[in-house]
Amino acid sequence: MANQIAANLAAHGADAAAAETAEHIARYWDPRMRAALREVDPAQLSAIARAAVARLDPAGAASPPSD
Known about the structure:
Pfam family, one: FdsD
Protein name: Formate dehydrogenase subunit delta
Shape: globular
Structural class: mainly alpha
C-alpha cells in the first residue's frame, strides 16, 4: 500500500512525494501497520516509499524534512 500511495503522489516530485507519503502513513496508518512496514524488505518498496519510511521516526510520526 505504501507503494501505491507513493505512486499517486509521485507527480509532486520525489522529495515532496516522500514527505507527503510519510505524513499520510504517520497520520492514517495504525501503529501495527507502520511497524509491519518497517519489516518489509526495502527492495519491495519504490524509491519514494523507501524515502518515506526513512522519514518516519521510531514512533511512526513523520519527521520534518531536513534543509
